[in-house]
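User: Batch of two.

Assistant: Item 1 of 2:
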Amino acid sequence: MPFLPVAPLPDDIPPRRIAYDPRASLAAPYVPLAAAFLSGRDTPRDALERHLHAMEQGEPSVRAFVVSDTAAARRLADAATARWAAGRPLSLVDGMPFAVKDMIETIDFPTQMNSPLYAGWYARRDAAAVWALRQAGALIVGKTVTTEFACGNSGPTRNPYDSTRTPGGSSSGSAAAVGAGMVALALGTQTQASTLRPAGYCGAYALKPSHDALHTGGVTPLSPTQDHLGLIGASLEDVWSSAIAIARRVGGTPPHPGLQGPEHVPEARKPRALVRLDMRGWGETDATSRAAFEEAVAAIARAGVAIIDRHGDPEVESLEQEIVAGSEYSYDIFSWEAQWPLRAYAEHGLDRVGKRIHELLDHTARMMPEGYRAALASREGLRRQVEALRDRADGFLALCSSGPAIVGHDYTGSRSYPTPWTMVAGPAFALPLLAADGLPLGLQLAGFRDRDAEACAVARWIRDLLLPGSL
């Protein structure tokens, strides 16, 4: 398969602009259709055809995919349809159409990482998560665009709601494909902000699980202590059931035993209290987005949840200050740990890797081991501060980004809001419940490490409160 270069939109395809409504988005959930599949009112094959129609309509301007195989997807959907009709589905995600970020190995599609160095390269295996989803009956539609090595130059993908804007990165195509209704789920990764930010930009749900709670085997490494497998889906049910399908078949990244919880999304649970976090991103956030967030927080408070924030609470104020400082040392950790393989790629010739990778390697060249150790120590301090709030609150509220997707395609947006919970290593959900200027704005619900199911129960409660009757 040829390498897909960055290119401008063709002149004969007009810009795509669709007003975003959280109650009627383009995304098309799959797991909530289980009862219809069992009764015969719907089938996985029919669901796939709806996704493929959305792909046919949207892909010319969104350009989420690097490669796809719709014929194979149809064959697999027919097999899943027969299993559901017989009342013997392999799992809740049996027949689910999904896509795979092109940083993640697949045996039947090339893994090219938006780099000419990997043009046409095939792995000899599926990544652990891909293998697990296939075992659960899910079917791959194709591979989705990533930024170069998930940290460099952007690819050709556009935002599904406004093609003049970025879809975010580095899981660009994954978020855009789900947001546009082309698939119900897409695998992504997050080393800083690469799952939550694009999901928020594209009107999709997402889960960045606790660190190592999902197996990252077969995912090209960048920063082992911060790399996460991420799931971007059309509903909370889709991301949760897919995560459990992976964990039950391959576990977590050893020695983590893997994500724990029920196959169905956990029952909604009203939290006692939530910590509202402004973080560094608040100063970057426009007035319309601030107002949308404030309205959501106020609605949660009116429902009887205590909101704890930095005003008058020294413990939260201290945490906010540490999060602001963390935006610096998180980059130190990432760049130090990513020296390999990025330096090895650069040895093929600096003209074979993009400008952003040059900048990252230049930053690393100025670091010493002592700086890396200091950054790790600071990160441990941040984690202790979060854990100290465990007895006072059931989660943390923030935005997924400092506003809707920004205009342009070279820059994928600020990482200020998602990066902190990458460092904390706890679970974080992107909830596409807000809108600003007619575009998606993601609400972030974060939780305590290895309490993913509890965080999901709170996320479901928030969704049901802010979008009643959404499913």
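Item 2 of 2:
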Amino acid sequence: MAGFANDFKTTYWPETRALILLALPICGAQLAQAGMSVVDVMMTGRYNATSLAAVSVGASLWMPLMLFITGTLMGLTPIVAHLLGGKRNDDIRPAVHQGLWVALVLGIIAAILLRTSIMPIFEWMDVPHHVAQESAAYLSAVAFGMPGIALFQALRAFSDGINHTRPSLWISLVGLAVNIPANYLLIYGGDGLVDLFGNAVPDTLQQLPALGAFGCGIATALSMWTMTLAMMLYTRRGRAYQGIALWKRFTPPQLAGIKELVVVGMPIGVAIFVEVTLFTLIALFIASFGEVTVGAHQIALSFTSILFMLPLSLSMALTVRVGNTLGQHRRQLASHVAWNGIVVSVLIAAFNSLLLWVTAKPVIALYTSNPQIQALAFSIIALAVIFQLSDSLQVNLAGALRGYKDTRIVMVITVLSYWIVGLGGGHWLGTHGVNGLTEPLGVHGYWIGLIAGLSTAALLLGWRLKWISQQE
């Protein structure tokens, strides 16, 4: 017992502490960025139902694009972490510059897609014409910010890779601070200012038009570019970056550097895109079950998504810690770092499960007063309590493997587990039941499918990490 206590104090606790200190600012940044979406929905919802629908439909298109870009650029984090661990600081600058070139190209492509390819998608989705028109205007404004948010994500991946995660937190809060007043001014126009401040508002501001969803899109783009410019300024002047001199001389595009980032990062982007589309498709499939079911599903998903931020942030920090250690050519220590992080993820899963169960009823009551929706949402959350362990495990096992730059296998496992086991199994259970033994399980079948998919991913990723961590 004394030996274990000594090992914990000298070996496990220092690594756990370092991991948590890295993860907490990442978690704060994730929550701040998620807060922007919440603000958009709340403020357009108070304007009118059409604008709310336009923003909701539009976000379902640009958010997966942004997450794919973010995932691809996350490949820069283990690359930088390896270089930092190996004390190859002179190689970090050109590697980051290649990331910025990739970010710029991806951001421009996303902007072009959002401006030119939206109406056919809306027609295929049978979106009402007036909602489609306003959503297209919203997306045309958001498109202007896509290159900016792509550049921000590349700089954030670089900063995370050198163990400096706090700037992304503070700058995400700056983005949120810009988003709220810009939304108010552009969505509600001069009338909104008069309602808030009365006759103290100057006449010129009272004449500002209310732009609704289009104004929300402009505010979102402004927030994106504000975060980007702030991150550029900070990485130029911050003391933590002085040894790298990121902005001293810009490196032109280099095929080898771009190829390394694409090889490492693209599978991450695909894996994240697969996860996002899993939940999008489930929402579409259950739409036919009625308003009560859809409302209960969205409440349970919203609540669990917030709690997921902590294991997700731990996963991103674990990528950095494993990458740093491998850059030092200390594979045995890297294995210790990885598995120590997995143990921490289990503890976080236990905490999330307890928190979900204890707070479920009062939190659901904040979302709705409808007793039918409350009862169904509580039964769904009871299933969500079960998959906290597999969800936390799979995301952190993937994070550790990304530290090894082992991303293609993670992508394959994710696609098989999420779409075949999770979505396919969930759809079968939801619409057919269990081989005639039970009635169709409805929304519960889809959530049981999620449990099966996440558990399959956790088992396969655990096998992969065990194999790769034993290689010399």
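The chain has 15 helices and no strands.
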